[in-house]
Amino acid sequence: MKKRERFNKSFFKSLFANIKEDDVTGLAAELSYFFLLSLFPLLIFLFTLLPYLPISQEDILNFISDYAPGETMKLIEGNLTDIMNNRSGGLLSFGIIATIWSASNGMKAVVKALNRAYNVDETRSYLVARGMSIFLTFGMIIVFMVALLLPVFGKQIGMYVFSHLGISGFFVSIWNALRFVISAIILFIIFVGIYYFAPSEKIRCLTAVPGAIVATIGWVLVSLAFSFYVGSFGNYSNTYGSIGSIIVLMVWLFLSGLMLILGGEVNAQFHKKKGSTCD
Fold first, then answer.
1. How far, in whole angstroms, is CA 53 from its chain's centroid?
2. What residue intervals traverse the membrane (predicted)?
């Protein structure tokens, strides 16, 4: 028992020291900038895929609105509507390259932040590192699409089964709770993939899991708490005027980046304790 307590003390002491040394808040601010630059290209690409998928713009926006502050959703929805109404055709041809390239900038910044957490330099060539960022971006898009499709088909199947049992109303109340559980599981899968593939370091497979759990729980709680604060107390529009929505979006992206890096720091600590070979 004492040995475990000493381990926990040593682990958290080392974790907090590394968080301070790696300037996690500074990295989160940097990530928020790149996330902002990546957000709209990524959403534009997702919207251009909608004609080929059984989901709608509302499905994508509803998924985001579960966690994003209300002012942020107005900004995202308004700008996306303007862009999609005024864009010319052919985005899924040459334009897809530029869109994915822009969207992968956010993932490239994540790779940099995780390399710092592991105290390693980027040993991969520029093309390999950029390819990794694009690969992770595509992976995130695929998982995001699955996250959107599962509720669509899951609700249809559930309503069909429960309607035959005569308790469809009961299913709706259960489904509203399950929606958040499914979202959290999808986020966890995304985080595990990022933490395992992004660093320029060969890590143990299982050491990607603790940080993914921390990041998932932390991101959900922080997003919901910030959304509640903005909706109930923080009137940014009155304070900052027309740029209030942008400030809310940047703060939310900063908090998201903070949780992502924090999960990486936790994984880095387990990596140092457990070794560097993959089970």
1. 22
2. 31-53, 89-107, 127-150, 180-198, 205-230, 242-264
pLDDT number for residue 214: 94
| Segments making up each domain of the chain, as ranges | 22-274
C-alpha to C-alpha distance for 198 and 64, rounded to whole angstroms: 24
Q: Which alpha helices (H) appear in the chain, and where do they start and end?
A: 2-21, 24-48, 57-65, 70-86, 95-117, 126-165, 168-197, 209-232, 236-240, 244-274
Place of tokens 């720091």: 265
Is it the case that residue 233 has pLDDT exceeding 60? yes
Nearest CA to 141 among 212, 268, 53? Answer: 53
In Å, how far are 75, 119, 261 from 218, measured between CA atoms?
A: 24, 23, 11
Cβ-count burial 45-79 (b if 16+ within 10 Å, e if not): bbbbeeeeeebeeebbbebebebbbebbbebbbee
Apex CA 40: angle with CA 117 and CA 263, to 5°?
20
- In the 8-state DSSP scheme, what is residue 166? T
> Based on the number of CB atoms within 10 Å of its own CB, is 261 exposed (0-12), middle (13-18) or buried (19 or more)?
buried
Least confident of 6-15, 116-125, 180-189, 248-257: 6-15
| Cα 254 from Cα 238, distance rounded (Å) | 21
Per-residue pLDDT tens over the stretch 241-270: 667 778 888 888 899 899 999 999 999 888
In this structure, what token pair is assigned to residue 235? Answer: 């009137």
Can you tell me the distance from the alpha carbon of 277 to that of 59, in angstroms, rounded to the nearest whole number? Answer: 41
pLDDT in tens, 44-87: 777 777 777 777 777 777 777 777 777 677 778 777 777 667 65
Of 120, 72, 74, 85, whose CA–CA distance to 246 is shortest? Answer: 72
